Amino acid sequence: MIQFNHISKSFERNGKRFLATKDVNLHIAEGEFLTVIGPSGCGKSTVLNMCAGLMKPSSGEVLYRGQLVTGVNTKVGYMTQKDNLLPWRTVKGNVEIGLEIRGMSAREREEQSSAYIELVGLKGFENHYPQELSGGMRKRASLAKMLVYNPETLLLDEPFGALDAQLRLILQDKLLQIWRDTGKTIIFVTHDLDEAVSLGQRVAVFSKRPGTIKSVKEVNLSGKRDVFNIRFTDEFRRVHASLWEALKEEFMEEEERVV
Ligand SMILES: Nc1ncnc2c1ncn2[C@@H]1O[C@H](COP(=O)(O)OP(=O)(O)OP(=O)(O)O)[C@@H](O)[C@H]1O
Ligand SMILES: [Mg+2]
Questions:
Q1: Ligand nearest to the CA of 24
Q2: Ligand 1: which residues within 6 Å by Cβ?
Q3: 30-42+151-258 CATH
Q4: Is the pLDDT of residue 180 over 70?
Q5: Which residue has the least CA distance to atom 12 on ligand 1?
Q6: What residue spans define the domains of the chain?
Q7: Concatenated DSSP letters of 47-58
Q8: Are residues 45 and 157 in contact, defined by beta-carbon separation less than 8 angstroms?
Q9: Pocket test residue of 44, 80, 257 for ligand 1, highest count of atoms within 8 A of CB
Q10: Which one has a higher pLDDT value, 254 or 72?
């Protein structure tokens, strides 16, 4: 479905070029749920931006269903790290943007948007403006805005970072349910190793900048994933421990630099 082939991306700062990502190689199958984890600044959002066609790689190529991504990739829904809710539209107005563009009737839009607003737990806040919402509520509104459009692939950049632990579990569970029911392809970026292992069929660990893929581990769980109890399974502990070894090295060096 998605192929990152030897992707490198450099940016310029103060007249100097620096590498953000280096030789990222990763293929994601249709219907796969991949989670991505790595230190801050290693290029995770940059990789999603390239998949969404918002940025071009400096070298290498991104293929989507075998086609080179050259402009905005309309097949993917992208929930960016910073929410992009329009401040002059209410929650309902924001959620319905994509449906308006499609020319859907007001009644159908209303039906769809209220279902997704309820799904993310924002029922009662339909007529609030983004500035009247908490950080976590804004994240949930962005999630509804992306899901209502029903894209075949979801790119999610730390979607649940601002939520309390309980709500996070509930939304993880809902996302897994959507994934199981629809067979969507998902790339999910997170800072939280528990979350990465709970959700991903595979977890990709990025090295610190210039980010490259350090390790990819499968999480082979028998039966249906249960985010509420997965942490207590042997498979979770085993994969968590081995990924933590890979991640720790990256974070340790990061910490030394910060100190
Ligand atoms: N548009 C841009 N122009 C210049 N530099 C950029 C741009 N986007 C990203 N960078 C730089 O590229 C590097 C990778 O950034 P990116 O946002 O992809 O990191 P990240 O892994 O998503 O980090 P975080 O976990 O903190 O979100 C950083 O050093 C960042 O400053
Ligand atoms: Mg990021």
A1: 1
A2: 11, 20, 40-46, 81, 209
A3: 3.40.50.300
A4: yes
A5: 20
A6: 30-42+151-258
A7: HHHHHTTSS--S
A8: yes
A9: 44
A10: 72
